[in-house]
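Amino Acid Chain and Its Fold in Token Form
===========================================
Structure side: the spatial fold of the chain, written down as a series of whole-number tokens.
Position: the record begins directly beneath this header, with no further notes in between.
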Amino acid sequence: MNKYFQLDKLGTNIRREFVAGLTTFLAMAYILFVNPSMLSETGMDADAVFAATAIAAAIGTLVMGLVAKYPVALAPGMGLNAFFTYTVVIGFGIPWETALAGVLASGLIFIILTLSGIREKVINAIPSSLKLAVGSGIGLFIAFIGLQNANLVQADPSTLLALGDLTSPTVMLAIFGLVVSVILLAYGVKAGIFYGMIITAIAGMLFGLIQPPTGINDIVSGVPSLAPTFGQAILHFGEIFTLEMLVVILTFLFVDFFDTAGTLVAVASKAGIMKDNKLPRAGKALFSDASATVVGAVVGTSTTTAYVESTTGVSVGGRSGLTSVFTALFFLLALFFSPLLGVVTSEVTAPALIIVGVLMVSALKDIPWDEFEIAVPAFFTVLMMPLTYSIATGIAIGFIFYPITMLVKGRGKEIHPIMYGLFVIFILYFIFLN
């Protein structure tokens, strides 16, 4: 084990890697409850999604640790699960089975791009400003969903939106959870989001807003059945060959591709394993991510991607793939705690969505807002995601504006040919689907 993971060379040991693996797991354990809560709105079985989430996270993280040897954990991504639920299924009216087939297709394309070496060309084709805008826009969208789930904002016939009833006990519980989570994170607690959910759930039970467990069977049980979701992506794969699904697949692929690349760089930099400003074993790391997406789609969950929360494990000493192996084991153990889904209500998960949104929106600071031709497409990308309730629409509008503003400004030579291709695809998307 020492030789395989090069623990001595990396200045770490098994105990330190174990603590790092546990720390990373706790920092991202919220996804075990948030993901089923969100995907179940499409009609998917919540228990099956819980199991699929844990299995996809465990397998993806294990492959990352054993093959790429990175201290990076994977799980169904926040943002992509929102896109899956609210844009693809609820917005477009696409059955969740077909949406899973789209996730599977994006994972297979990701593998092809990785194995063929095209990934670098694709990464370089998209301007950094749009990459940052997409991530920030998704953050704003997720935060908006959190505010809705907490009933902190509600529909209004006059102004479209208005402040919710702050005297409602459930709204007050969500506000309490948000404040607690913010305080924990402000104090530097690594798993502040997860602990915030636990404290909120306990408070809800104490005040009679959440039904508490009545016995051990309400806490621990056997592994939930995957039967309702397993294999649906394969059975419905023939339904993805439409223009609408092309846009869906491109969005899944785009967000996963750049989210993973950004996370890998962030974690590798913090761990001190970057070499000459380059990512060692990048191909293996990206392959691990793509493989996890394929596995996740088959078992029944939205796109699986690398988590920036992995930096919490690195911050306590994690340096090798052994950290990921331990994190994967904790996700497998989590399979036996599905009954706790009953106490993790929307008021409990809403603060997590809002805070994740805050963390994602911070990327806006790196966009050169003083360059108008760059600011306009970035602005519309971010703004239109929550306003149209669609991540795909936000991306499409931003990618349409980018070539226009750059050409008008005389910077056409900076536009990669792939961007022109995406421009045409998104124009067709609006013409034929809207």
